[in-house]
Amino acid sequence: MREETTTTLPHEEDWADSEKQIATADKKSASPGIMEKASTKIHDAKSQAGAAASEFAGKTKQRISESSEAAKQRYVELKEQAALQGTKAKQAVQSSFERHPLAYLAGAVVAGVAIGMALPRSRKEKEALASSGQKLRHAAGEAKRETLHAAEAATEAATDTFQKELGADEEASAGENAKQS
């Protein structure tokens, strides 16, 4: 079985007990005037408590309303500031783009290449580039061999020239030494 509970305000039970006591005392008492005064005082105290609670609720409601209004105003201010900053940023990017369009183009190309390199190669791409890759490797190998032969020939020629000049300098020195003797 479920018990029903009722919500009571603080001291509400005390008020009810006081009223019961007054009613009981009123029946027992010979002087109803005292009981009336006590009942009036309790009623007045109850009214004052209710008025104080009502005043407190009103003040709390007013403070919440003021806080809510202040929060709304702050939100509007921040929204306007964000819009202004967004406009400034947009203008700065546009100005930079107008002054340095090639830099943005280069950045876009680099980004495109990076994305393209990050993507896996497809089977068709591998098949299509296989013969080109082999041709490119063969051509690079030929260029390497030709460059090595040219470098060897240039080194031999430079060595021969150096030796000839060194030999000519030695003969000249020997001839001068013979004249002086």
How much is the radius of gyration in Å? 53 Å
Arithmetic mean of pLDDT: 80
Strand content: under 5%
- Separation of the first and last Cα atoms: 143 Å
Molecular shape:
rod-shaped
Structural class: mainly alpha
What is the helix fraction of residues, given as a range?
over 70%
Poorly predicted runs are 1-8
The DSSP helix count reads 4
The strand count comes to 0
The sequence of SSEs as H and E is HHHH
Biggest beta sheet summary: none
Could you walk me through the main structural features you see in this protein, from its secondary elements to its overall organization?
The chain is mostly helical. Among the domains are: 81 residues; 44 residues. 89% of the residues lie in helices and 0% in strands. The radius of gyration is 53 Å and the shape is rod-shaped. The N terminus is likely disordered.
Could you give a quick summary of the protein structure above?
By secondary structure, the protein is mainly alpha-helical.
